[in-house]
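User: Hi! Is it possible to get a structure for several chains at once, not just one? Here's what I have:
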Amino acid sequence: MVKSIKLFFEQSWLLITSAFVFGLLLSVTNAAWQPRIIQNEIDKFNRLAGAMLSEAKTFELAAEKVEIDMPKGKTTLLEIKKGLDADGNCVGWAFVCHGSGFADKIRLVLTLDAGFETIKGFGVLSSNETPGFGDKIKKDYFRSQFMGMPAAEITLSKTGDYKEIDSEIVAITGATVSSEAVVAIVNNFVGQVRGKLKEKGLIDNGK
Amino acid sequence: MANDKSNDVSLSRTFISGFWNENPVLRLLLGMCPTLAVTAAVKPALTMGLSVIFVLICSNIVVSLMRNLLKPHLRILMFTLAIATFVTIADLFLKAFLPEMSSTLGPYIPLIIVNCIIICRAEACASKNPIVVSIIDAVGMGGGFTITLCFLAGIRELFATGAVFEIQVLATPETGGWFVPWAAMGMPVGAFITLGLMLGLTNIISKKA
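Assistant: Yes, the chains can be modeled jointly so their relative placement is included. Here is the combined structure:
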């Protein structure tokens, strides 16, 4: 028994020591940079949401995380933020929504007005859609179709006028899957978030 | 004296070999995943190259320092442990200080862990040589990898957008120019074609030499 333990340590002492040292190094590095990483994410959210809700000076958490149903029976926890103007009045809502794109997960920052009736727009937090095609979801001509549209069920059309603001979105040529993904994400989240905010009495005075 | 000179020659040969004779991409065909995936533009390619240089230098130093203590059957595990540590540090650094670039590169920075160049240099050089040789080998190999990636990315970015390093070189019709961007060059097909042509050119040049 003692012999086997001795053999074990003779063989593996370097591995055990290295794992401990490298683990310590990673812990220290992570502890040093993690606050900055979190701040970067907050800044990016505020930058994207602030560009769409220009009256909002700050964004604060509206309520505790809510559970949102996702495709294939999955769920996700969502933080809903309230955009506040200089006087502390609510000027809109912002949250991060996500879903599957053509190549990878698409994460959007979606903003709506204070009454949750009009979409103010979306910004792409992260995506790996095909360069030259799917990545055009970041382009203004596609995003601008969402600005000012009613927060109801959105449909996708392959042809039409990009400048027309209604409940129909014109898909990006050559990137129908990416366009469909954005529409599906918005449809999935807007309805559910409205329901959660109503439940909590944060919109429609609880009606 | 003669020994010093031969050492210098050997060190400079080690350094230079990474750029041509043993260029990881063009001659050894290693690290193909990032070569094809992050070369749509020069900036991400340069960031990837610099990250690989950092990981290569650090892992070569660690492996070289522990080379006399390594048990043969545990060496790959030790290499992976060291490489994974430095890749995680590089990934955290990018997330903290270059968040936009970190999201552009996506999973390809963490994937440096399985980049064959790094484990290949740990096995072929650092585990058999002293620290100075290991560092020079890492700089040479990493430098060769970075330059090749940037060259490949430069060609792709130019044809895909008319720009190099995000500086517009060829004016597109939108700005009153004649150059129509080739979207395909920004896609995987552009990476395969450009890399294939570069490999062919390398073979022609090396046969002549």
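Strands of chain B lie at 163-164, 167-168. The mean pLDDT of chain B is 92.

User: Great, thank you!
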